[in-house]
Amino acid sequence: MGGRHEFNQVIFDNVRVPAQNIVGEENRGWYVAVTLLDFERSGIDYSAAARRHLDDTRQWADGIQRNGKPLSQESWVRNLLADRVHRD
């Protein structure tokens, strides 16, 4: 869960967990799992990753010189980055 797979299945049977490692209420693990699924299915993690990649690309373009100025100052690069921002 929380990964990038088409299908996942995990089956636990007769599992014992130390009390200090229990997340949530005892015997209510499915509800914790469903909460994780809500996050995964919302797509918020994809949006956050896309934003990080865009920010990384901007920083990279700021650090690369072309014709004596940062690549990020080229109009075609600025237009491309602006297009990606508006897609979010």
Could you estimate the helical fraction of the residues in percent? 40-55%
The tally of strands reads 2
How far apart the termini lie comes to 24 Å
Low-confidence stretches: none
Which sheet architecture does the biggest sheet show?
2 strands, antiparallel
**Strand line-up in the sheet with most strands:** 1-2
Write the element-wise H/E pattern from the N-terminal end onward. Answer: HHEEH
Strand proportion: under 5%
Rg from Cα: 22 Å
Overall spatial form: elongated
- Find the structural class using helix and strand composition: mainly alpha
Mean pLDDT: 83
Q: What count of helical segments does DSSP give?
A: 3
Family: Belongs to the acyl-CoA dehydrogenase family.
InterPro entries: Acyl-CoA_Oxase/DH_mid-dom_sf (IPR046373), AcylCo_DH-like_C (IPR036250), AcylCo_DH/oxidase_C (IPR009075), AcylCoA_DH/oxidase_NM_dom_sf (IPR009100), Mycobact_Acyl-CoA_DH (IPR052161)
Protein name: Acyl-CoA dehydrogenase AFT10-1
Keywords: FAD, Flavoprotein, Oxidoreductase
What do these coordinates show?
- The chain has 88 residues and is mostly helical.
- The protein has a domain of 44 residues.
- Helices cover 53% and strands 5% of the residues.
- The protein has 3 helices and 2 strands, in the order ααββα.
- It has a two-stranded antiparallel ribbon.
- Strand 1 and strand 2 form a beta hairpin.
- Helix 2 packs antiparallel against helix 3.
- The protein is elongated and about 65 Å long.
- The mean pLDDT is 83.
